[in-house]
Request: fold
Amino acid sequence: MWRWQHGIKEEELGFDMAPGNDEQDSVKEYSCDCEPDEILIPEMLKLTALQFEDGKLSEQAEVGKPSGRREVEMPSGRIDIVVDTVDRTLTVCIDGKAYRSFPVAVGKPSSPSPPGQWQVVSKGVWSGGFGTRWLGLNMPWGKYGIHGTNKPWQIGDLVSGGCIRLFNHDVELIYDWIPVGTQVVIIGNPFGPLRNPRRELGPGERGPDVLAVQKRLKMLGFNPGVENGMYGEATIDAVKRFQEAHSIRVTGVVTDEVYDALGLRLFE
Reply:
C-alpha cells in the first residue's frame, strides 16, 4: 500500500518487470513532441539565458524552483523513480525511501504521461527540445522518456507529448545515478490508463488505453494477441468477437458502449 510521507507517496518498490530493449534511435524518431512550438519572446529568451552560464546553472536564475545542486552526494542502494503527474514531481527513491524530489512538466490532457510501471532502457546526451540528457522508457507503443528541456518556464505544467521534462541541471544531476534497468512508476492519473473523455480506439491507435482494453479482453476470454498497447489485427478480431457476444454492432472499434461493456469506466 502507498503511504504518504512529506507530501509524496512511497512504498517498497519491488516490481517484476520484463527488461526492455536498449533503444539507440535518433532523437527525431522519439514519440514525444518536445521541439520548440512557439515564438520565443524576449522575456523567454532572457529566462533561458539566465538559467545557464557557460553550460552551468546560474545562481541568479528565478525559474520555478530549480533544485539541482552539484554538491548533492551520489546515492547508494537500490534506485527507483516515482513520477506523480498530479503533484508534477519526480522523486528518486533509495531502497524504497524518498531521497530527493524535482519539479517536472508532464503530458498535456490530449497526450497524458502513461501511468504504470516502466523501466529505463536507454540513456543519452541530447540537445534542443530534449534538453541535455535523455532516459528512455520501455513503453511498447512509442518512445517516451525522462529528459531535460529548452523551455524551462514550462516546468510544472501539463505540456508534453507524454514525456517527463526536468530542468536541465536536474536531469544532469540524476543522470549518473540512474542505471539502465531502473524502474519508473508513473502515478497520479485518477482515471488510470484512460483519458477523459475516453477516446475512440481503432486500427493503428497506440497507448495505455489500448493496453487496458487488451488486458481486459484477455481477462474476459477474448484473446487480443500480444498485449503491447498497439491496436493491430488480433485486437480488432478480439473486439469484434466481444461485440458479437454482447450484442453490440460489430465494427472492431472501441466506443463508449464497448468501454462500458468491458467495465472500463471513468469515475470522478
Q: What stands out?
A: The mean pLDDT is 77. The first strand starts at residue 3 and ends at 5. The domain at 3-187 is CATH 2.40.440.10 (L,D-transpeptidase catalytic domain-like). The chain has two domains: 3-187, 190-268.
